[in-house]
Amino acid sequence: MIEEKIADSRSIEKTMFREFFMKNLFAPDRRKTYNEIGLIFHRAYFVKALREESETKEAINLNSEITNAVKAARNRAQYDECAKRLLGQKSILAHILVNTVDEFKGMNPKDVIPYIEGEPQVGVVPIEPGLTNASDMAGHIGGFNSENAEINEGTVRFDIVFYVRMRDGISQIIVNIEAQKNKPVTYKILNRAIFYVSRLISSQKERDFWHSDYDDIKRVFSIWICMNMDMNSMSYIHLMKEDIVNEYDWEGNIDLLNIVLLGVTNEVPKREERYELHRLISTLLSNEIEAEEKLNMIELEYQIPVSEELREEVNLMCNLSEGIEERAAEKAAEKTLRETNKKVITNMHRKGYTLEQIAEIVEIKPEEVGKIIEEESMSV
């Protein structure tokens, strides 16, 4: 499109020059004519230089915008991954379990840590049917699929998923933690949570139970942490039995499916027992609290040992948060500059400046000036 407009403008200049030259070739005052021809040449080269400079600036700006967008996306992705890794620390998971799973309520979180088996899988286990479980060459299922991150690139994954041994030392539950920056607007979060908890059940076949041994299905918990909410809240969603015609005691485990929705505000809540988990998560993921202050609160209030790994993750999150905020400020400044340019362009146009004169001053193309003037006139 740009190349076509440039070609059109050059063609028009050539036509104008040819018509002027033929018209004035035999004019009495040829010196004046030659001077005017010289001015035309001078104007043509000046316009060409301006056009080339404008195109260069546009290419540089476009390249800069793409680079900044890629950096911002990469930092946001790194920030999200860092948040998952922080929540995936066993000391943090223990606090979540104490506040959400009936088996561990009232326990000291440090006593719950040994019940978390193996290492929590963070952002690697696919949700899609057929990809959740790992299998060998013979097709035998062997635990969660955490080895094919590159092969299954682009698939949706559980944020955090892990096994927890119950206090009886025999039974297990499967826990999934999902972190959301805010309440989704394109779908209802409960519907997605139901899908996830259903996958946690169905994926157990041939991994945790075989053939028709449905009594071996493990309880599952899908815990959703939703940030930037208007109020701190916690909801527990599970199956309930309602007798319609007569009461009958059907055999089975009605407690297999469990969903916990945790709403967390930006502001760190006061220190109260009912907001204990909210305060911990809000502190951990806050963009406004310095790293050292976070670590002090975590250690002093929650008696969570600050390991070197935890310290590194908290520092990384704070650094990424600062970078995201800086880019947000830059984007706000760019928006302000665009709005200011619109006002300047509109005022200059009212005072009779040509599109080329305005374009030269604000350093954009005349076509863009014309478009802005048209848009502004339509909005009045």
Word description of this protein:
By secondary structure, the protein is of the alpha/beta class. The protein has 10 helices and 8 strands. It has helices at residues 2-24, 30-87, 90-100, 109-112, 189-202, 276-285, 291-302, 308-350, 355-362, 366-379; strands at residues 116-122, 133-135, 141-144, 160-165, 172-180, 219-226, 233-238, 257-263. The strands form 2 sheets. Strands 1-4-5-6-8-7 form a 6-stranded mixed beta sheet, with helices on both faces. A two-stranded antiparallel sheet has the order 2-3. Helix 9 (355-362) crosses helix 10.
- The total strand number stands at 8
Radius of gyration from CA coordinates: 32 Å
Element order: H for helix, E for strand: HHHHEEEEEHEEEHHHHH
For the largest beta sheet, what order do the strands appear in spatially?
1-4-5-6-8-7
> Would you tell me the overall average pLDDT?
77
In helices, the fraction of residues equals 40-55%
Quickly give the structural class: alpha/beta
Largest sheet: 6 strands, mixed
Low-confidence stretches: 1-6, 65-73, 135-141, 147-153, 323-328
**Span between N and C termini?**
29 Å
Please count the helical segments.
10
Strand content: 5-15%
Shape: elongated
